[in-house]
Amino acid sequence: MRPFIPDQDIGYFETFLESIGIREGGILTDSFGRIKRSMSNTSASAVRSYDSWSLRSESESFNRMITDITHDIEALARDEEEEEEEEDNYL
């Protein structure tokens, strides 16, 4: 996503990624900075059956955050387009 983030906003973006556990390079970490590794199919199935609600909840929370961010970015783009149209009307 870095090519789509303006230079003046990259610091905010990287801080956000770190706050949700994603380090530089897109590496997902836990709260202690340890890299989260993928599980084998067997252990992943065991976790899903034991803790499926928790995983679904975290996934839904993350998806909701991404959706909110997307909506905010789209709203900013619309605001900018409206400002440009208003400027064109004055010329």
From TrEMBL:
Source taxon at top rank: Eukaryota
GO BP, one annotated term: heart morphogenesis
Alphabetical list of Pfam families matching this protein: CCM2_C
Domain Cerebral cavernous malformations 2 harmonin-homology residue range list: 1-34
The protein, known as: CCM2L protein
High-level lineage: Eukaryota, Metazoa, Chordata, Craniata, Vertebrata
